[in-house]
């Protein structure tokens, strides 16, 4: 009787063990080298393990469980455990290294130095060559070789002062008036459709608004939305007037 009871106990233990899963023994490698400190997570049972310095790990799994292998320097790996995987001892997991991310490098193309020569420069060079060709050697002509052209220099300074005197300071633009601002930003249709004014009331309405102390500063700020709010506000007051 004891033997039969023990047999049933052993049978149901084995059956329960096969249904509950197996302690999977695994080893993590990358290009033939062991990888340690890899987190192994069973997404079904929410259990986890970490590979040791030799890449070994152990984790309870069942066929169909989804495992995630996570580590800093290697690409994440997801796998589903099959019955064949359960029979592997150890189950070898291969990880791929993450690609090296290069910092953005800005390449600036340097343009070659270009010297611009005008037609005036060319003419001056020609005249200089002609003058040197006409000089007679060993005869003093009153000029200083490679000397400073003081006449030309003083003429340039004099012309600069003349041009400076001709320059007139720019006059500041007069501030825009209230009526000018309205004329440039609000057409007749605005007064007729938005403000519901009659054509003969538009000029009177503008004069009424201009009498408000806020009108001039509003025009100087040139804020269209602020001006529109002001006109709508004054329109309500204008329509309450007895005329």
Structural overview:
Among the domains are: 22-94, Sandwich (Immunoglobulin-like), CATH 2.60.40; 178-240, no CATH class. The protein is elongated. The protein is built from nine helices and eight strands. By secondary structure, the chain is of the alpha+beta class. The relative contact order is 0.07. Mean pLDDT is 79; it is low at 1-6, 8-18 and 110-115. The longest helix is centred in the N-terminal third of the chain and has 19 residues, at 2-20. Strands 1, 2, 5 and 8 form a four-stranded mixed sheet that branches. The chain has helices at residues 2-20, 83-86, 119-134, 150-166, 178-185, 188-194, 202-210, 215-221, 224-240; strands at residues 22-30, 33-34, 39-42, 47-50, 56-61, 66-70, 77-80, 91-94. This is Carboxypeptidase-like regulatory domain-containing protein.
Helix segment count? Answer: 9
* N- to C-terminal distance: 120 Å
The CATH superfamily title of one domain: Carboxypeptidase-like, regulatory domain
Strand coverage percent: 15-25%
Query: For the residues shown, what is the average pLDDT?
Result: 79
CATH architecture of one domain: Sandwich
What is the general shape? elongated
Structural topology:
Elements: H1 2-20, E1 22-30, E2 33-34, E3 39-42, E4 47-50, E5 56-61, E6 66-70, E7 77-80, H2 83-86, E8 91-94, H3 119-134, H4 150-166, H5 178-185, H6 188-194, H7 202-210, H8 215-221, H9 224-240
Parallel strand pairs: 1-8
Antiparallel strand pairs: 1-2, 1-5, 3-4, 3-6, 6-7
